[in-house]
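Researcher: We're teaching a course module on how sequence relates to structure. For the next exercise, students receive a sequence and then see the predicted structure as tokens, so they can try to spot secondary structure elements on their own. Here is the exercise chain.
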Amino acid sequence: MAHTFILESGQWTIEGNWLERNGMLITVKGKTIVTWDRTDWFSMVTKLVFPSKDREDILLQYRGRLDSDERRFTFLLQHSELGKVEGEGWIGIDSIIQRSWVLGDDPQRRSGFETLHRLDGKRYYQTSSVLSGLSLNSAMEATIERQPE
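Model: And here is the predicted structure for the students to work with:
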């Protein structure tokens, strides 16, 4: 079974939990739209919403390129809280793994790490985190589900 997230255009819903350092676990929901405009370039927009209004929505706008081996990708990201971010990803047999780092962020050294584990052709389990230096700032765990076209 091949990966469908990132590698195919589509709409996905996100439902899960968000945790911040010294904070309570809060519900997060969202939506991701993936599009391909050429054979090796993709765009992805994600909006995360916190229904309890415990924090502001987060908007992520990606532009990425799949390498010729179709196992690795690089991306640029405009993050509503972190600013400009650069990253790379690997496509494994059962998971998509990516890491990122905030550009021009030397004092805080913020970065992120994310794993999307494929449950089936339409669902993934996502874990992600944002770090400052060596310390965790926030983490999210969620199920991502592909929506019918």
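Model: If you want an answer key for the exercise: The longest strand covers residues 26-38. The domain at 10-146 is CATH 2.40.128.20 (Lipocalin).
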